[in-house]
Every structure is written in structure tokens, then in C-alpha cells.
């Protein structure tokens, strides 16, 4: 047992010895997932800005029921991201984010430009109550501040498969193990995940941002088929990302869980 643990620890140790420095610093987010910075108190961090976090009735994430959720009509959602040689990859404390605007989401006569994509562990959405080890969100925003999100659940591969795009995103993950730092990704080729998105069904619902200010009126488009991540990559990402999933919100249209709970306390 002892020798197994020793051998298992070696790759992690050597990864840190060879880590490069971060390319620079960014301002980390003030909210987080721990104690008074966490989702139960996001409203308390700023009761004006974060009103919807505690009072919104269409909050994300939700438990997606595959029998009751809507499915996007095939061909009605054009998810398009241009391949780029590299992009800025930030550790915001609250999450790991790739800043890239070369893309768009066109649906319902609205074209939303891409703003960024980022990761959560564990997943925020659940499907028939099951959660997944990770989730990726592509956030799109128009000049008029209309927001839409494309989501992918990520599942552990029993065969060591990964998603090539994410191999390249996480290439220099070791550089940004501290919140408030950034590095560069490797070359980003989106053709694989775009064809994945177009090939499988897509859950859709009208929800919110899952982080402060929890703004509503956000259409979600989540692939019904998870993307692969392998155990080694998952553990490396989890070691940096730690924990950044908001708790499952109330059924769409129902009173916010925080409001219900606060009333019951009183
Ligand atoms: C979480 O956020 C709160 C409020 O900003 C802060 O006081 C606390 O130090 C943060 N905790 C961690 C672990 O980052
Ligand atoms: C709270 O949010 C409001 C509206 O976004 C902003 O004007 C104000 O400066 C914020 N207050 C604090 C203490 O950050
Ligand atoms: C995706 O965007 C690129 C660059 O704007 C454009 O040339 C291409 O036609 C778009 N593809 C689709 C399927 O919309
Ligand atoms: C991506 O967008 C940036 C900012 O608009 C631009 O400078 C860059 O040329 C674009 N890259 C590609 C490959 O389209
Ligand atoms: C998009 O706009 C066209 C032309 O204005 C209209 O005929 C069509 O119904 C609209 N489609 C949707 C989904 O709103
Ligand atoms: C989405 O939900 C918001 C409330 O959060 C509501 O105001 C809006 O009308 C809804 N949009 C659609 C298309 O159902
Ligand atoms: Zn997210």
C-alpha cells in the first residue's frame, strides 16, 4: 500500500517542479464557493447587484428531467467558434476561464457574440438527478447584454479518452494554480465539439447565470451527450479548480429556494 501511494504521487510532484510561471495577473472574483463567499450568501455580498440570486424564479442550474425538458429543434441553433492559435486562460478563483470572442451563437433571430468559456467541477446541471464530474459553459453576450449559454457535461472515460480541445486548453494548467493568474492555451480547434453539438440532441430552457449577479432571461442549450475527460486530466483540473458548482435551484417558475427557506426560518 505504501509503495503504491509513493508511485502514484510521483507524476504530481514532477509536474510542479517543471511548472512555468504564470504569464501575468488578473483580478480574481470576490464571490466563491466557501463559507460566506458561497452561493447561499451571494445575495448578501451585494443585495442590489445580486438580487436575482435570492429572489429570481428562473434560476440555474437545474435538475434536467429528460422527460419534461424541451429539446432544441434540430438546426435551430448555430454554435460557431473560430479556431485560434491560442487564447488567454485565467484562474479567477471562482473558476478557470478561456477569454475568446471569435465565435457566435445564432438562434431565434438573435446572434450572440462569444464572450468566454469556462469550467465547473462538479457539474452544475444534473440530468434525472445525476451529476457529472465536470461541466463546460460557453457564454455569449450581445451589446445589449442579452446572454445565452451553451453547456457540455463532461464524463470520465473508462478508456482514457479525452476531448482534444480541452487537452489544448489545459496544456499549461500548472502555470495558473494560484487564483488571479493567467497563461496561454495551446492551439484551439473547435471543429470536434461543434460537430458533437450538432450531432446529438440539445436540452434547452430559459434560466440564468449560475454565478453572481445570477441574471435571468438566459437561454441555455446543453448537449445531451457528455464530452470525455480522463482520470488524470480530471484530477489535475480538480486540484486547481477545487469546487465551483452552485447548488441545484428550484423548479423553473417556482419561488427561489432561498426565499422559501428564509420564510420557513422566520
Ligand atoms: C470567499 O469569499 C469571501 C467573501 O468575499 C471571503 O471573505 C473569503 O475569504 C473567501 N474564501 C476563500 C476560501 O476564498
Ligand atoms: C453593489 O452593486 C451595485 C449595482 O451593481 C453597485 O453600484 C455597488 O457599487 C455595489 N456595492 C458594493 C459594495 O460593491
Ligand atoms: C462560422 O463563422 C465563420 C467566421 O465568421 C464563418 O466564415 C462561417 O461561415 C460560420 N459557419 C457557420 C456554420 O455559420
Ligand atoms: C479573434 O478575435 C480577435 C479579436 O477580435 C482578433 O484579433 C483575431 O484576429 C481573431 N482570430 C481569428 C483566428 O479569427
Ligand atoms: C425570425 O424573423 C423572421 C423575419 O422577421 C420571422 O418571419 C420569423 O418568424 C422569426 N423567427 C423566430 C424564431 O423568431
Ligand atoms: C425567460 O424567463 C424570464 C424570467 O426569468 C421571463 O421574463 C422571460 O419572458 C422568459 N423568456 C422566454 C422566452 O420564455
Ligand atoms: Zn458557468
From TrEMBL:
Tell me if Metal-binding is a UniProt keyword of this record.
yes
**Pfam families in the record:** Carb_anhydrase
Task: Give the Alpha-carbonic anhydrase domain ranges.
Answer: 29-266
- The coiled-coil segments of this chain are none
For this chain, one GO molecular function annotation is: carbonate dehydratase activity
Tell me the leader sequence span: 1-15
Q: Which UniProt keywords apply?
A: Lyase, Metal-binding, Signal, Zinc
SMART domains under this entry? Carb_anhydrase
Q: Which reaction does it catalyse?
A: hydrogencarbonate + H(+) = CO2 + H2O
Which PROSITE patterns does its entry note? ALPHA_CA_2
EC numbers, comma separated = 4.2.1.1
Belongs to which family?
Answer: Belongs to the alpha-carbonic anhydrase family.
Q: What is this protein called?
A: carbonic anhydrase
Q: Write down the species.
A: Talaromyces amestolkiae
Amino acid at each position: 500500500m505504501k509503495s503504491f501511494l509513493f508511485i502514484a504521487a510521483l507524476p504530481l510532484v514532477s509536474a510542479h517542479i517543471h511548472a512555468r510561471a504564470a504569464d501575468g495577473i488578473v483580478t480574481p472574483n470576490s464571490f466563491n464557493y466557501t463559507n460566506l463567499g458561497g452561493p447561499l450568501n451571494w445575495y448578501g455580498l451585494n443585495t442590489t447587484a445580486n438580487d436575482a440570486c435570492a429572489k429570481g424564479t428562473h434560476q440555474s442550474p437545474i435538475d434536467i428531467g429528460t422527460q419534461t425538458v424541451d429539446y432544441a429543434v434540430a438546426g435551430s441553433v448555430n454554435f460557431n467558434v473560430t479556431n485560434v492559435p491560442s487564447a488567454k486562460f485565467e484562474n479567477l478563483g471562482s473558476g478557470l476561464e478561456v477569454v475568446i470572442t471569435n465565435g457566435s451563437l445564432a438562434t431565434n433571430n438573435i446572434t450572440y457574440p462569444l464572450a468566454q468559456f469556462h469550467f465547473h467541477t462538479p457539474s452544475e446541471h444534473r440530468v434525472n438527478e445525476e451529476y457529472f464530474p465536470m461541466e463546460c459553459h460557453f457564454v455569449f453576450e450581445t451589446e445589449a447584454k442579452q446572454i445565452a449559454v451553451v453547456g457540455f457535461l463532461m464524463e470520465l472515460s473508462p478508456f482514457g479518452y479525452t476531448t482534444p480541445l480541452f487537452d489544448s486548453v489545459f496544456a499549461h494548467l500548472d502555470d495558473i494554480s494560484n487564483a488571479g493568474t493567467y497563461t496561454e492555451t495551446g492551439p484551439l480547434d473547435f471543429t470536434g465539439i461543434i460537430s458533437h453539438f450538432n450531432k446529438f440532441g440539445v436540452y434547452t430552457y430559459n434560466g440564468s447565470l449560475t454565478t453572481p449577479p445570477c441574471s435571468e432571461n438566459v437561454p441555455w442549450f446543453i448537449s445531451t451527450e457528455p464530452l470525455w475527460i480522463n482520470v488524470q486530466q480530471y484530477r489535475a483540473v480538480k486540484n486547481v479548480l477545487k469546487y465551483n458548482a452552485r447548488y441545484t435551484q428550484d423548479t423553473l417558475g417556482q419561488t427561489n429556494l432561498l426565499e422559501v427557506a428564509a420564510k420557513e426560518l422566520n
